[in-house]
What we know:
alpha+beta, Jelly Rolls, 7-stranded antiparallel beta sheet, 4-stranded mixed beta sheet, binds 2-oxoglutaric acid, binds fe (ii) ion, Oxoglu/Fe-dep_dioxygenase_dom, oxidoreductase activity, acting on paired donors, with incorporation or reduction of molecular oxygen
Amino acid sequence: MPSSSVKKRNTEKSIKNENKSEEKVDNSTEEKPKYRYGPMPKLSSQRMWSRSIMILGVLLYVWWTSKNESDQILAKQKQLYDKRYQMIDCDKEFLKEIREYKGCAPRKCGRFISDQIVTATEAETLLRLAQKAMSLGGSHGGATILDLHSGALSHGDKFINVYSLESGKKVVSAAELAIYKIVRKKIQEAVASFFNVNPESLHLTHPTFFSRLNNKDPKTPHDEYWHEHVDKETYESFHYTTLVYLNDYEVDFKGGRFFFLENEKKTHKNTTVEPRKGRVSMFTSGAENPHFVERVSVGTRYAITVSFTCDKTKAIVDPVLK
Ligand SMILES: O=C(O)CCC(=O)C(=O)O
Ligand SMILES: [Fe+2]
């Protein structure tokens, strides 16, 4: 027999059965309370509990999935990107200021990620340089900073000048310094190309620094690297912020992801960048790009913040061999 006619019969059967049971109720002569929506189901306390737990489970699931959906990943650690970007409207104040500088204002603000600018060898050389130089000092809290331009290095709860140490004078070799400069130049070209501005209108600015982040408890406000901020407000001279990641999220450390906050759009969705060795992130430094770094929970995270300004008077020069 064709299955559709079996189905049809079964359906007819079940409709009939339903009618029968309805008839049974109608034929009853007992006095029963009348409920508008039928008789109230009687649930044992055990069933009530199991149903409540089930409902709670469903609610928890809905909450958990909606929480996880609230962030979108701009760049995953495991994936290699030639160019990944998001264009956004510039903050009005930022636009007003940057317009003053000829050839330096972007057509649109935004964020760019590329894994094709800095090679793995360059990233490894810079990582070794950071590890070597930072071993001469280091914060007691979770964030150590090294500025090769000024020589500033976190030391306990203060900063020292690494070049004033005998061992610090030769801490950077000529070859390492050459790579640092090549990387800086390549990033400058990339910023100019992505944001469609004149590379000559961009100038390296202060602070440009290496960072080493871990899960130690903070000892000074400098150690609290996880706060939300806008770079233009924290560092006045910034117009374009770039970051070079020197090691890998989920491999060398856990936590330490970078979050762009999208509260402005009222979506409460964050946009995440997962650090990857040699990955470069470039973004306009105005209030269109508020961000924070997630606290590292395991391991040590290394990165370089390379900053550019359109204001010639705020330019700094590349570091020289000591
Ligand atoms: O290291 C990072 O990913 C971001 C650092 C940062 O926000 C900054 O230097 O202003
Ligand atoms: Fe920042």
